[in-house]
């Protein structure tokens, strides 16, 4: 409930309105800006990575094409074909052609420094080997795997991956090498007459590829058509099969719990260049944009909080203060005044509030004075009604006794009436001690005993200390008279009226019970309606409603009468009044 009230406070609403109104556009613009910037950065980085792969592919194509063109020079050499295909050459002519062939191979190696060795093998093993290097001998290659692969390719270029061991010499080179091989076919028959093999230094290629990096952990590899690594940043991976299938286009792939973008490119020789770009590093720039955007948003939120706090202090707090003053004035405190009476609209509102409270205070004082006079008039009117009512009933009883020639009873009744009228005149004031009121009630019962043939007993139960309770004069007599007239008179037996006084915390409860015939339930609802009973004919209908109205006028609406029918028969009337006099609304109504 407290949080609900705070949420509906104008200070909270002003702060939330300003805070949300300031930060929401910043959040939206920041999010859109970051999203757009991140997509542009990722797109541009992806394009740069693709362009890099394309450039590397172009360089590799040029490198491999140069080597392939060198192999075509051997393949189209008449000297090489003459050595391999002419069995009738004399030893002299063969030596001349071999020398000429070596010169050709030497010129190829001079033009391509990356080529380490060029060998041409005679498939018939007549002239076993033609090489630019006449000093080095090589092991037999006729049954080697690479030799058989070249034969199976039947003239197509066959590339062999990087290796630390020479393909030809079968010894460690101390640096990586790779090979190119082609079968030499007869121009006349198309049969394979020889095999050429280029052993090429891999350092130039590796240095070129090692320079290609994508972020801190991104790399590039080259795989052959069997998806085996021709090149990999880790030399231990040379020749091994890639665990990742070759993609047909840029593809996201999760590798080692990292999302990686694979960008492939196919070389002219059928191999594949694949860039492995970690997406986290690819979007590193967008992450910095995101961090910058977050800081902007946080700064905007802090600024919004500061400005919102200032706005609530300047606008909200004066309104909250004015609202509290209104609640206090609503609760009855008309001494409150607003201190904020500056030139602003809120100050004007404070001045108007102060003026309104002053006018209300004056108006309430005027109304209170008028109400006091009105209550005095009402109480005087009630007393003027009850006195004739009481005299009417009492004199009516004496008249009946006079008709019956009960002279002694009339004398005693008149004496009791004189005593009773003297006590009811109230020369000492409106209020009387409860003990004195009970004594007047006993005098009244003397008159009533002469009127009826069967006896009527009055029983009073008043604890010590309760006799001093102040009550309005003649408060109990109308109730006892009502009990006799309506409850006990119709009986043919002894009547008993019991008056019991009890204290209930700060109040006094006076119970007046009779053993009469009781009141009908349907009459209980309107019995205390003063206006309704006053409109009826006769004086016997206003007793209870008069007492009820008198108590409420003196003490307020919390006090008054309660009438109920007893289960064992008879009626009980309960009067509730303050035991200490309470907040008496009208002090001098009887004057």
From TrEMBL:
Residues 353-387 form a coiled coil. CDD domains: HAMP (cd06225), PDC2_MCP_like (cd12912). Keywords: ATP-binding, Cell membrane, Coiled coil, Kinase, Membrane, Nucleotide-binding, Phosphoprotein, Transferase, Transmembrane, Transmembrane helix, Two-component regulatory system. PROSITE patterns: HAMP (PS50885), HIS_KIN (PS50109). It comes from the Bacteria. SMART domains: HAMP, HATPase_c. Its EC number is 2.7.13.3. It is an enzyme of class 2 (transferase). One of its GO terms (molecular function) is kinase activity. It is found in: Cell membrane. This is histidine kinase. It comes from Paenibacillus ihbetae.
